[in-house]
Amino acid sequence: MNEIKKKIIEAAAALLTEHGFHGTAVQDITARAGISKGAFYLHFKSKEALYIEIFHYYYTELKKEVEQAEDPALAPSENYRNQLEIQIRQFMNNTSLITMYIREQAFSINEQLLSFIRLMHTDMAHWYTAHLTRIYGEPVRPFVPDIATLVEGVKNSYMQLFIANPEKLDPRRLTDLLIWLTEQATRGFLAGEQEALLDAGMIEGIFTGLLPEEKDREAGITEEMSVIRSLIGSLSLPASTSGFLSSTADFLENQAACGTDADPQAIQGALAAFKPYPEFSAACHRLSELLGIPLL
C-alpha cells in the first residue's frame, strides 16, 4: 500500500471515530491527511469505498500479527493461548476502530460490508478449527462451531464491557478464562453431555436474508421506480419540476443498473432531490434499503 493511501485511511479512521460517517466530509479527510481532493479520488472512488477499506486495512494488520505469533516450537495449546491473548491486546489498542464499527455498521449493511463480515467470520472459523483439532484431535471437529461461538461470545462480551476503559482489562486473566471455557466446553461435547447446536452449514446460513436476493432486489427497484414515475405524473407540479424529477428518476435507474460500479454519493444526491416532496418518502426509503445507500 502506498504512503498516500495509508495516510488517507488513518486520517479517515480518526475522523470517523470522532464525528461519525455523516459528520465527516471528504474535505475533512483530505485536510487531516494533508492531500488534495484529486489525490483522494485517485485512490478511492467515494467515501463509502474508503469506509469499507478502513476495516479491511486494520483487519489485515491485526490478522497478520496473530499469524506471526504462530510458533511451531510450541505445543498447540500454547499457540492457542498466545493468539487468544494477542486478540485481546489488539482490542485494547484499537477501541476507537471498534467503536466506529459498532456505531456505524447500521449505516451500511450493504454488500461490501456484508462481504467483509463474511471474511472475518470465515477466517475466525478456520482459526478455531485449526487450533482445536490440533489440541483435541479430529473428534472435536463437529463441535468447533459451538465451541467457537461460546468462546467468541464470552470474549466479545467482556471486551465490550471495557470498551470505554480498556486499560482496566487484564488480558492474561481473560485469556485464562477463555482457555478454561474452551476446555470445559470441549470435554462436555466429547463426553456426550451436550449435543451440538450448530454446524458449518447453519453458520453460513446466518448471512442468508441479510440482503435481498438479486432478483428480488431488481424487482423491488423496478417497483419503486414505477411508483416514483407514477407520482411525478399524478402530482400537480410545475413543468420544470416534473422534468427535473423525471430526469433524476432516469439517472437513478441507470445507476441502479450499474451494480457495484454505481456512484453512492451520486445516488444519495439524486434521492435527496425528492426530499422536498413527502409523497416520495416511502419509495425513496425503500430504494435506499435496496441499494444499500443511506439517505442524506
UniProtKB/TrEMBL annotation:
Pfam families: TetR_N. InterPro entries: Homeodomain-like_sf, HTH-type_Tx_Regulator, HTH_TetR. Keywords: DNA-binding, Repressor, Transcription, Transcription regulation. Residues 25-44 bind DNA. Residues 2-62 form the HTH tetR-type domain. SUPFAM superfamilies: Homeodomain-like. One of its GO terms (molecular function) is DNA binding. GO terms for biological process: negative regulation of DNA-templated transcription. Gene3D superfamilies: Tetracycline Repressor, domain 2 (1.10.357.10). PANTHER family: ACREF/ENVCD OPERON REPRESSOR-RELATED, TRANSCRIPTIONAL REGULATOR, TETR FAMILY. This is Transcriptional regulator, TetR family. It comes from Edaphobacillus lindanitolerans. The lineage of its organism: Bacteria, Bacillati, Bacillota, Bacilli, Bacillales.
